[in-house]
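Following up on my earlier thread - several people asked me to post the actual chain instead of describing it. Fair enough. Here it is, all 381 residues.
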Amino acid sequence: MLVLFYSRKNYYMSAKKINSVQLLRVIAVSLVIFLHAGLSGSEKLSVENSLASFYHLSTWGAIGVDLFFSISGFIMTIVVPSYSQRSDWKKFFGRRLIRILPLYYLLTILTALNMIFVHHQSVTILSALKSILFFPFFDDYKFVDPIVGVGWSLSYEIYFYTLISIFLVFGKNIYKSLFIAISLLVIVGLTFNIQSPLLKFLTSPILLEFAFGMICGLIYKRVNKLTHIGNDLKILVVLSIVIGLTLMSITIFVTPNFDLHSMHELENNNGHAFYRAIVWGVPSAIFMLGIILFERVFHQRIVNVLVLAGDASYSCYLIHAQLYAIQAYLFKYLHLGIEFYLISVIPFCVILSIVFYRLVERTLILLFDKWFNTPKQVIMT
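Reply from S.P.:
Thanks for posting it. Predicted structure:
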């Protein structure tokens, strides 16, 4: 922890900027990079991945997505209270779209052009529509993948934001309403033998991971009001980090008889999605809560470069597939080993993503902020 945090006297957590969330975003996107680079990047190197034979480590990085979902749930408990009027749902949803869409649409267009004119591949209408609308389109009862592959997770993000927007209209007890709605949806999805892909999506147990994040957010807000931090709380915070990380790591060695990391398993089988929400979602939420409270109760600050990397995590999530592929081809040309590749690929992707974030993503969001005259910047909220 000493590398990630540094002490500062008389430090008090700001409700608007919780830097440990940025640290968690770095961890989450690093896990995703590790997953994809280990599976696809090693193939481009045309050498055997030495990690592939170590239990389930090669696919374990998919847990980064579950951590991202918990982070999203947590963040909503911080930002939603500022939307106190029923009409504010438009502002809330608009800000969510400004945060997600400009960069995603830009990269979707560039990816589609690359597929068509460079690789001479076709782009289906359904795939294009999925990329534009985030709606769970399907073909032969199978979910259609978006043009930018990692965009599948954004459909769940948009769905979660839509639920929040709906309950903002009613105005009262939004968290209680969300918990009840998510619980009922998941119960329906698990109880009935649903065949419709659309209904599977709407009742997916993966929604529980957002709920876990909201629970952590409500716990954090109560702790943040405390004027005195006792040793018992400090011990619980450390235990949360240790227990969460331990439970997350156990799945490297023990997994079910299906592909726990597969997005298709998550989309097409609610039972498998529920299993993932429990064995990956719960530990991720516990770990997340421990890290965030560690910053608060021990009066710590996050190393600035990690905060910046967290700012760039969305860019990194969307473009890392191109970055690890470029590095793989470079390593192949230079005859460098797979071990060095797997060690260096995460900092390589993160550093270039920071540059991309400063030059492209931040510029796009500030431009849309100005166009739509948003009252406060959308950057990393």
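Residues 5-372 form one domain. That should answer part of your original question.
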